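Interim report to the steering committee. The following record documents the input for LysR family transcriptional regulator (152 residues).
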Amino acid sequence: MAGWKQRLSELGIALPEVAAPVAAYVPALRTGSHVYTSGQLPLVDGKLQVTGKVGDQVTPEQAKEQARICGLNALAAVDSVVGLDSVARIVKVVGFVASAEGFTGQPAVINGVSELLAEVFGDAGEHARSAVGVAELPLGAPVEVEMIVEVE
């Protein structure tokens, strides 16, 4: 469906600039009818707004908002490769949550990106998903998200 950028505008959501890679990789890559994003951190203007482990320095609510930012960064990466309006559907989301010992709320944190995708893409935003707790993430980020997107 064309018009995803228009939908973002209607929702009052602006795509950020594509986040610069923090190592040797590209933000997103197309192969065939799919775009794979690299793991996207919740960078805003090149900086993390929140650092630490969820369930300790970072609340689950803060982490959920950070996951939404990761999702926006992933969509910006997709847009930079194929243009957002060529998205047919979101196929898969993988979310990594830097988790304090005993924290098991990773699925609720990654709902931040899943709810964003539903808001923007409706049924085409329904996706398979993994939400994984990890010990550490790059730069001390509380969350990282990657996506696989089918394009027309």
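The helical segments are 4-10, 60-82, 106-121. The committee is asked to note this result when reviewing the revised timeline.
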